């Protein structure tokens, strides 16, 4: 019997200490915690220091990106990510606030979820509305990944040729489209 495994991209971040230590130590511990599930680690980016967003909202972040393969569905993988976040005292009470650990499912097997129309709505949502509204369902690929240096720089570290299933641009091309200041602020640890 052949198993079917899907590849997924997961962004990791944190800016508060946990039982594992400082944010970079928490990211290492989170990757180890994920390995206890039936997830195969395919690649890990370097760790990067990034400014908190929005500016002044807390300590700066440590960010990274991993590629895994799994037999889980996208929803099943998201549940595992939330479980691991909870192990590191993640509390979901403020959008874009300080956090001990953030595990974002960025892309899953080239899928567009839940459908192209809903995805397009979130892709085109103005920043002011993004800050007030959050989706009540899984949106894939992550509708803001092309705007975020703290996602694209680590993504280019491990998969520069990965192609966005809606935009048709590679990670390298999306990174090149960002303003220079959004790229230079993402510094390797």
Automatic annotation (TrEMBL):
Pathway(s) where this gene product acts: Cofactor biosynthesis; tetrahydrofolate biosynthesis; 2-amino-4-hydroxy-6-hydroxymethyl-7,8-dihydropteridine diphosphate from 7,8-dihydroneopterin triphosphate: step 4/4
GO BP: folic acid biosynthetic process; tetrahydrofolate biosynthetic process
Keywords: ATP-binding, Folate biosynthesis, Kinase, Nucleotide-binding, Transferase
Nucleotide-binding recorded as keyword: yes
Molecular-function GO term, any one: kinase activity
EC number: 2.7.6.3
Pfam families assigned: HPPK
Domain of life (superkingdom): Bacteria
Domain 7,8-dihydro-6-hydroxymethylpterin-pyrophosphokinase: from-to ranges: 10-160
InterPro entries: Hppk, Hppk_sf
Family that this chain belongs to: Belongs to the HPPK family.
Function: Catalyzes the transfer of pyrophosphate from adenosine triphosphate (ATP) to 6-hydroxymethyl-7,8-dihydropterin, an enzymatic step in folate biosynthesis pathway.
NCBIfam families referenced in this protein's UniProt entry, alphabetically: folK (TIGR01498)
Protein's name in the database: 2-amino-4-hydroxy-6-hydroxymethyldihydropteridine pyrophosphokinase
Annotated organism of origin: Parasedimentitalea huanghaiensis
Phylogenetic placement of the source organism: Bacteria, Pseudomonadati, Pseudomonadota, Alphaproteobacteria, Rhodobacterales
């Amino acid at each position: 019997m052949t198993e079917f495994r899907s590849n997924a991209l997961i962004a990791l971040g944190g800016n508060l200490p946990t039982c594992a230590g400082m944010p970079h130590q928490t990211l290492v511990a989170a990757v180890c915690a994920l390995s206890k599930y039936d997830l195969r680690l395919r690649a890990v980016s370097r760790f990067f220091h990034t400014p908190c967003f929005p500016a002044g909202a807390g300590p700066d972040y440590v960010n990274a990106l991993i590629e895994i393969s799994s037999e889980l569905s996208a929803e099943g993988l998201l549940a595992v990510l939330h479980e691991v976040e909870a192990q590191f005292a993640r509390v979901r009470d403020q959008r874009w606030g300080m956090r001990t650990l953030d595990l974002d499912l960025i892309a899953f097997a080239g899928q567009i979820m839940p459908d192209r129309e809903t995805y397009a709505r979130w892709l085109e949502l103005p920043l002011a509305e993004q800050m007030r509204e959050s989706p009540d369902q899984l949106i894939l690929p992550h509708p803001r990944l092309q705007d975020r240096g703290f996602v694209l720089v680590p993504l280019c570290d491990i998969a520069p040729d990965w192609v966005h299933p809606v935009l048709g641009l590679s990670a390298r091309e999306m990174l090149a489209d960002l303003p220079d200041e959004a790229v230079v602020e993402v510094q390797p640890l």
